[in-house]
Amino acid sequence: MSWQTYVDDHLMCDIDGQHLTAAAVIGLDGSVWAQSSSFPKCKPEEITNINKDFEQPGHLAPIGLFLGGTKYMVIQGEAGAVIRGKKGSGGVTIKKTAQALVFGIYEEPVTPGQCNMIVERLGDYLIDQGL
Fold this sequence. Notes:
- This protein has 3 helices and 7 strands, in the order αββαβββββα.
- The chain has a 7-stranded antiparallel sheet, with helices on both faces.
């Protein structure tokens, strides 16, 4: 299965008639493996800061989580495994695997829990595959 298929079929799947706003799988080195057409263009330093927060939980809390220049307030996650951000009625979930970061961005009516479930389920599958 191609990486684009993971994004199109698993991350951008139907959720009670809704979909995530954007999704991507990005290598830990910042290389884009696959993304939805709506995923923001991330700056290298944004990916570097996200990786640093996985290594040093709390790194992003004072400065915020930036994706494509959009700032998200960091909310509870799982240290070293999941980062969650909130902006208005939407937000982002990022799951770290051995080789990549799995991103899901949502807006209402999609709920944070729905986004978390989709992103973390794919992330857990990739971890099980050693990816």
